Amino acid sequence: MLNAGKAVKVSIYLSDGATHHGVPVYSSLLDFLFYRGVAGATVFKGVAGFGADHHMHSASTVEISDKLPIKIEFIDTREKVDALLGKLEELAGTGLIETQEVTVAKPAQSTKPMSHKPPEHLKIEGKAQMMRIYVSEEDRWKDKPLHEALVAAMRANDIAGVTVYRGIQGYGAHRHEHKDKALHTGHHGSIMLSAIDTAEKLRGIVPLLEQMVAEGLVVFSDVDVVKYAYRPLDTDAAEPKAE
Amino acid sequence: MKEEFAGRMLRVHFGEDDKWQGKPLHEAILAKCRELEIAEAVVFRGIEGYGSASRVRHASLWRLSKDAPIQVTIIDTEEQIAKLTPLLDAMVEEGVVASSVVEVVRLRKG
Q1: What is the dihedral of CA B16, B21, B27, B29, to 10 degrees?
Q2: Residue A181 near residue A223 (C-beta atoms within 8 A)
C-alpha cells in the first residue's frame, strides 16, 4: 500500500505497435505491474511523437496508425520499483524508461476496502491422485449420457471434484474415430473426465466404474495438489480433503 | 472385462495452425497413433493459452483466429509409446511433449 511521502514515479515510453510474444507490449507491462501488486498504473496514448528512430508518428495521417506513442506511468515505493526494474527493462524492449523522485501528497484510497483479504482462505497441499476416464459422448448409462451419470456417481461418492472435457477428435476403446465436425452440434466426440482425490477414494469407485463404463479407459497418475479454497459457508457442504 | 497395466501418458501441446505434410498436425498425429494401434488418443482444443507453440494473438481482429492451443493425450504401454516418440520428434516442430507414468484400467464389453 502506498502512503503519503517519498515515492518513485516510473514512465515507460513505447510504440503502440510493439509486441511481446504476440501481445502489445503495453498490455504485458500492465499485466506485469498488476500481478506484481503495484499500487496503480495508467497507460496513455499519445497523439503524435517521435522516438529513437526519429520517425514522426501521428494520428492525422492514418486514423488507426499502430505506431503512435504509448506511455505507461506508475508510482510506488523505491524498493518496489527497484525490484521491478530488471523485468521492466526486458519487457519494454526498445522503449525508454524514466524514473523520478516524487512526493505523494495524498495516497489513493481503495473504494473496496480490504477486498483482497478474503476470510478463511485455506491452502491445502499434499499428494493425491488424478483419475482420467476416457469414454464416448454417445455412451449412455440407464437413460442419461454416461458422462453425466459418472459425474453424479462421483459426487454421490464424495469425490472432491470432477471436470468433463470434450475432445475435438479421438479414438479409443470403441475403435471408431470421433470427430467434432460442426462445433457445438456434434454429439459424437471423445469425452474425458478428470477427477482429483486421494488414491483410496478414487480406487474405491473403480468397482462402480466397472458397472457403468462398458468400454473405456481409466488412467491414474500421481499428482501434487495445491488447493485454494474458501471455507464452505453452509455446514452441509463437503469438507475439502486435507490429505 | 477389466484389464490393468502400467502405462505411459503423453500430452503433446502445439497450435491448431501447425501442419504436417499439409495436414493439420493433430490429425496427422492421430493417424499415426491409429497406425501403431495406440490404445487411446484424444485431441483437445484449449480456449486460451500461450507457450512455445500456441501464440497469444495480439488484437481483437484476431479473435477469430483458428490458432487455438491444441493438446493431444496419448495413452498406452511403455513399449507402444516408445514406438511413437521418435515419430513425434519428427512431426512436432514447435511444441511441448509432457510424459508421465500412469496406471491404466481398461474396461471392455464382454
Answers
A1: -100
A2: no
With an 8 Å Cβ cutoff, is B11 touching chain A? no
Cα angle for residues B106, B109, B110 (degrees, 5° grid): 115
Question: Of the ranges A52-61, A187-196, B77-86, which is most confident?
Answer: B77-86
Class level of CATH domain A5-104: alpha beta
Cα–Cα dist B2/B39, whole Å: 14
Q: Length of chain B, please? A: 110
Q: Which residues of A touch B39 (CB under 8 A)?
A: 172-173, 217
* ipTM of predicted complex: 0.77
| Pairwise CB contact (< 8 Å): B42 & A217 | no
Q: Count the neighbouring beta carbons within 10 Å of the beta carbon of residue B99.
A: 13
**pLDDT tens digits for range B35-90:** 999 999 999 988 777 765 545 543 344 455 567 888 999 999 999 999 999 999 99
Q: Which CATH number is B51's domain given? A: 3.30.70.120
User: Tell me, what's the pLDDT at A243?
Assistant: 38
Task: From the options 3.40.50.720, 3.40.50.1220, 3.20.20.80, 3.30.70.120, give the CATH code of A121-230.
Answer: 3.30.70.120
Q: How far apart are CA A124 and CA A122, in angstroms?
A: 6
CA distance A140 to A28: 46
Q: Between B100, B103, B107, which is nearest A213 by CB? A: B107
Structural contact between residues A71 and A12, judged by C-beta atoms closer than 8 angstroms = yes
